[in-house]
Write a structure and sequence with these properties.
This protein is α+β, with helices and mostly antiparallel strands. It has helices at residues 8-18, 26-33, 37-49, 73-76, 98-107, 157-172, 226-229, 235-239, 245-266, 269-278; strands at 53-57, 61-66, 89-95, 115-121, 140-146, 178-180, 184-187, 190-202, 205-215, 284-290, 293-302, 308-312, 315-319, 322-329. Bound molecules: biotin.
Length: 335
């Protein structure tokens, strides 16, 4: 799939997608888009040949019945209800990493909200130098370029914004996900999504932030490499039916934009509250493998910069980076 610029075919599709379950007359489409009826028919047939199911009924018009399970501009674009995120979509069949491509685009001047998506990553990257399993045609690998008006020290807040948004997108897809600090999404204790945030900044200004989000949507257990099979899952495994990937991508971008807008308007406070509500870490006994070695204790809270506060034997420790293992549940009554 090349990076596709919007054309007449996409506009016809957008028109049909906006009408949702209703018919749209050929006349309305041709009038609105300034195309002949024959051209509309040609575009409808071109879309059908790409896997779109479009019903045509004399005197009623066209109705979009189903979209193919692809993550292209044609599939995601018409489903978007965002003002910035995804208004420019860069969709590829295969990339080493969507974060790498997004970084290149950001360096070349991409605007706030441009999004990179790939069907498959050959060198998908996770946090702390790990690989991210990225089989073709199963999951979502997406990177969003942001140009936030934030001082660099507040940029980590955006990772927590993204984890809240991704959590809500999973919940809207019918799966009860929760957030393990800082930004892993878990379902029944297994990882379903992760976020890799990268940025370029100088002392007092952020040039760009790339939020890289990987969500295991339709991967089956055998699609995961042996070493993570026991600790990873997908939304389709959790809910027992496949997830329409383009729909999920559009819903995720919409959630992300709403939470980013709230963050821009009201700061980190409401994000911190939302993160706490969705957390599966707070109140748990944890072991944190951080830069300064392992810390054991109870995860008490996150502070106003998103750092994890763990009460260990030696008192309260503030953790800014690390891997958390959930060990046990702490009875709040202390019984
Ligand atoms: C983690 O370790 O939990 C973070 C995983 C982030 C994976 C996503 S997939 C899209 C984007 N491109 C990458 O190479 N990584 C992120």
């Amino acid at each position: 799939m090349a990076e596709v610029a919007p054309g007449s075919e996409e506009m016809v599709l957008e028109f049909l997608a906006e009408a949702a379950d209703d018919f749209v007359s050929g006349e309305a489409i041709s009038g609105k888009l300034g195309l002949s009826r024959a051209a509309v028919w040609k575009h409808v047939n071109a879309l059908r040949s790409q896997g779109y199911r479009i019903e045509a009924v004399p005197a009623r018009g066209y109705r979009l019945m189903a979209i193919p399970d692809r993550l292209g501009t044609l599939e995601i674009g018409p489903l978007l209800n965002t003002h910035d995120l995804g208004q420019t979509l860069h969709c590829s069949e295969e990339l080493p990493s969507t974060n790498d491509r997004a970084r290149e685009l950001a360096e070349a001047g991409a605007v706030h909200g441009e999004v990179v998506v790939a069907e498959c990553q050959t060198a998908g990257r996770g946090r702390r130098g790990r690989a991210w399993s990225s089989p073709a045609g199963k999951n979502l690998y997406l990177s969003v370029i942001l140009r936030p008006a934030l001082p660099p020290q507040r940029a980590p807040e955006l990772t927590l914004v993204a984890s809240v948004a991704a959590c809500d997108a999973c919940r809207k897809a019918g799966v009860d996900a929760g957030i393990k600090w800082p930004n892993d999404l878990l379902v029944e204790g297994r990882k379903v999504a992760g976020i890799l945030t990268e940025l370029s900044a100088e002392a007092d200004a952020v040039h760009w932030v790339v939020l890289g989000i990987g969500v295991n949507l339709n991967a089956a257990p055998e699609d995961f490499p042996d070493e993570i099979r026991g600790v990873a899952t997908s939304l389709s495994v959790a809910r027992g039916q496949p997830v329409p990937r383009a729909l999920f991508a559009a819903a995720l971008l919409s959630e992300l934009e709403q939470w980013l807008d709230l963050h821009a308007a009201e700061g980190f406070g409401p994000i911190r509250d939302a993160w706490r509500e969705r957390s599966v870490t707070l109140g748990r006994e944890v072991r944190v493998d951080g830069d300064g070695g392992e810390i054991a204790g109870v995860a008490e809270d996150i502070d106003d910069s998103g750092a994890l506060l763990v009460r260990g034997r030696g008192g309260l420790v503030r953790i800014v980076a690390g891997d958390v293992r959930l060990v046990g549940r702490v009875d709040p009554a202390g019984a």
